[in-house]
Amino acid sequence: MRTFGGFRSDDRFFYGEIRGDEVHVLRNPFWIDIEPTGEVVRLTNVIVDLPVAPSKLIAVGLNYADHIAEMKRTTLGTPLIWFKSPGSLLSHAGTIEIAFPEHQTDFEAELAIVIGETAKNVLAEQALDFVFGYTIGLDISDRDLQKTEKQFGRCKSFDTYTPIGPFVYADVDVSDVSVELRQNGEVRQCTRTSRMIYSIAQLISFVSQSLTLLPGDVILTGTPAGVGPIHAGDELEAAIDDWPRLRNNVVIAPDRRRTSEGTRATIIM
Question: Is 0.85 topped by the overall pTM?
Answer without folding.
Answer: yes
